[in-house]
Specification:
57% of the residues lie in helices and 12% in strands. By secondary structure, it is mainly alpha-helical. It has one domain. Helix 2 crosses helix 3. The longest helix has 16 residues. It is globular. This is SCO5389 family protein. It holds the Pfam family KH_NucS_shadow.
């Protein structure tokens, strides 16, 4: 906080704060980024619901903040997409604007991903 009050904080320091203060969100994004890098799929995603409300809050905070999402995207070299309360996906930067990415972030995919369990997340 003191460094931010004195001036700019670099990405590495900011990402370290995110890692330390939002450990569940960090774990989810790290996992999908690693899965994307190691797998042969067009994207990797998390479909596991958070274990509790604290974890859910961390994930929502990370996904709702442009600064946090942007920092995570730059750190991992990915594009993050988000549906509902826990479906986080990692896409290669080259796929942004492509069919698979556009389908994932589209309204149809959001509606199809809804289920009674996820409507009040």
């Amino acid at each position: 906080m003191e460094r931010a009050e004195r001036g700019e904080v670099d990405d590495a320091d900011f990402v370290a704060v995110v890692r330390d203060s939002l450990p569940y969100a960090w774990e989810v994004v790290s996992r999908v980024a690693d899965d994307l890098q190691s797998g042969g799929e067009e994207y990797a995603d998390n479909t596991i619901a958070p274990p509790d409300e604290v974890a859910r809050g961390q994930l929502l905070r990370a996904m709702a903040s442009d600064a946090i999402r942007g920092g995570l995207e730059r750190h991992f070299g990915i594009k993050i997409a988000f549906q509902n309360c826990h479906r986080v996906a990692a896409f290669p930067l080259s796929s942004v604007g492509g069919d698979t990415y556009s389908t994932f972030i589209g309204t149809r995919a959001q509606l199809l991903n809804q289920s009674p369990e996820l409507r009040n997340c």
